[in-house]
Each structure stands twice: as C-alpha cells, then as structure tokens.
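User: Study the fold:
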Amino acid sequence: MSDDDHHLPSSDPQRDTPPSKDEHAALQRLGKRVKEARKDAGLDPDPTPEPGNTSGLAQGLRIGVEFVVAVVVGGGLGWGLDHLAGTGPWLFLLFSVFGVCAGVLNVMRMAERSLE
C-alpha cells in the first residue's frame, strides 16, 4: 500500500478538516454525559481511591507487612555481615534490633498519618 491509500478520500471535505468549535463543544458535552451515565450505572468505578480513604484492613495489613519486612531486612543484613566477618550471631542480633526499631518507627509514623 502506498501512503496515498491511508488517507481518506478528498471528495469528503469534512474528513480533512478538524471539527468546528461548536462540534468540539458538543462532543465534549456528550463525552461528559456518557462518563456520568457509565459511573451512575456502576460500569466505571473509580480505580484510584483517595490516599487517606483506605480501609482499616488495608492499613493493618500494610503496617504488618512493613514491620515484618523491616525486621527481615535488618536480620538479613546482620546475618550477611556476620557471615562475611565471621563474628558469630552478634551482628545478626544487633541488626535485628535495628530492624525492630525501624519497624516500630514505621508503625508510629503510619499511626500519626491515620489520625490526621
């Protein structure tokens, strides 16, 4: 196919010109009405909830996961450093405590945000 085959026929002048201002405004009004009708019918639920509008279950799961991840990352770093340095369980224990502290700090920050 040549490039000319992709263009619309020139015998229809409406296809080569952009819509007029009135047509554009009418199309925008129609689009808004369709969007509202779909939302009213439940076809287009809002995919992005507001940041402060999360359920208690979601917040609880997030707090729990963040706490566990902080402890695991701290313990993992300590274990790795112990393995490299040959210091036994001391760095593992120290970094596990750091992980617990970081987890508690994250929980406190999230609790403050949820009260605002």
